[in-house]
């Protein structure tokens, strides 16, 4: 198993929502960019919702999200995994990011949207129990369909319809 390490969040002190993945895939880790796989629907959806689509350079996309009140990060700081699939993550190796510190910096976040089931499961297992009660009580948590190309059970239009909740949350 290969040790995978995440990278810093896309954040802003004015962020009102946080979108969480589990761990960046191999393509993302290789270039140091969130959702870098060309068939991942994340950036096309962000383009529809916030004008932060894949036609823009990565830096401009992240600036647009931050300016729109959207933060992006991953639940896991590191884990062991072969390939990019969430199902390949070795659960015993999962180490969460510091959400207490992150939420202290981004105090306006009240909604967390999970990009798929693994992100939600890992957050509830590793991160949520470490949050202080005041912080935990103010958060609304919701799972959205994964934007991964491996999650082909829904069309782009169906995913976009559910992901509109992110725009409604800011």
UniProtKB/TrEMBL annotation:
Gene3D superfamilies: Uracil-DNA glycosylase-like domain. Residues 8-167 form the Uracil-DNA glycosylase-like domain. It comes from the Bacteria. CDD domains: UDG-F6_HDG. This is Uracil DNA glycosylase superfamily protein.
